[in-house]
Amino acid sequence: MAIKNVMVIGAGQMGSGIAQVCAQSGYTVFLNDLSADQIERGLKGIKKNLGRAVEKGKLEADAMEETLSRISASTSLEDAAEVDLVIEAAVENIAVKADIFRKLDKIAPAHAILATNTSSLPITEIAAETDRPEKVIGMHFMNPVPVMKLVEIIRGLATADEVYKEIEEMTRVLNKVPVEVNDFPGFVSNRILMPMINEAIYTLYEGVASKEAIDDVMKLGMNHPMGPLTLADFIGLDTCLYIMETLYEGFGDSKYRPCPLLRKYVKAGWLGKKSGRGFYEYQ
Ligand code: CAA
Ligand code: NAD
């Protein structure tokens, strides 16, 4: 089966990035979200990214228009009836994802692959919501999607080899590098990254240093492109908390307990860059 038509669910920072790279590689894309406003916000981000590339002389203006013409807005999951692949990038919540996959299973054609961009949740559990667990797979892009090369590919217990190969091949078409990992909480990326971010938050919580000092130590001392608190704001503090909860629950080990300060910020609606305030403030 050749994948041609794709639906991306969730037009947030990840979904819009995924839609952009798929359209740039020639796939037609439905960008789905709950409301037209949310899709418009996602499309605005895509236009800004492509516009910047045109200004820098890295992309022809015609290619930008062609890319944009491949993306259609969708507020109905029924549009999945026309696609070969769905990549779900809605919020990191098992109930939301389970509901989406149950519905998709009834709407998408029998041949369609259902992928999730989950950061940490079990692919096997999401697949079990469908009658096609062999066609369900994790396709975990990194943020910002147009820039980062990695896609972690995660098989659920029942994922078919052909499905793995199709997704691996498509990842290369998107000019990304596939890395296969097994289905354990947080996979590899967030099993390692998120406890570091959580520890940075504890360091702030316990008054060991200021937020700027913590970020400077990791930037200047370890050559990280962003300090951990800036990175947490960039990822979204809600997403960071959901990932820590998945690790904590999945491994039953207190070393993964989310820092109370992270919980407090999320409860306050301080979600990081996307809400205008997290550890830092944004315009
Ligand atoms: N969207 C699209 N493109 C972006 C971008 C964004 N948000 N931010 C930067 N870019 C592009 C710029 O346009 C520029 O492109 P060109 O080279 O073509 O000109 C390039 O990236 C470099 O940008 P800048 O020079 O402005 O900035 P920088 O050198 O500081 O790089 C960065 C920005 C790539 C974001 C860098 O700071 C970085 O790598 N940060 C760490 C990112 C990271 O760790 N991501 C993983 C997060 S964890 C995850 O994704 C998994 C999960 O499940 C939570
Ligand atoms: P986000 O908050 O920026 O966007 C989520 C979008 O999903 C919102 O626009 C929301 O309206 C939409 N949504 C929620 N429920 C929906 C539904 N039922 N149907 C359609 N759309 C729905 O979040 P994000 O950072 O883009 O993260 C999305 C997913 O990608 C999460 O599973 C997250 O763990 C994962 N992820 C995030 C990052 C990151 O750095 N932020 C990196 C890799 C993977």
UniProtKB/TrEMBL annotation:
It comes from the Bacteria. GO terms for molecular function: 3-hydroxybutyryl-CoA dehydrogenase activity; NAD+ binding. Pathway: Lipid metabolism; butanoate metabolism. The keyword Nucleotidyltransferase does not apply. The keyword Zinc does not apply. Its EC number is 1.1.1.157. Belongs to the 3-hydroxyacyl-CoA dehydrogenase family. This is 3-hydroxybutyryl-CoA dehydrogenase.
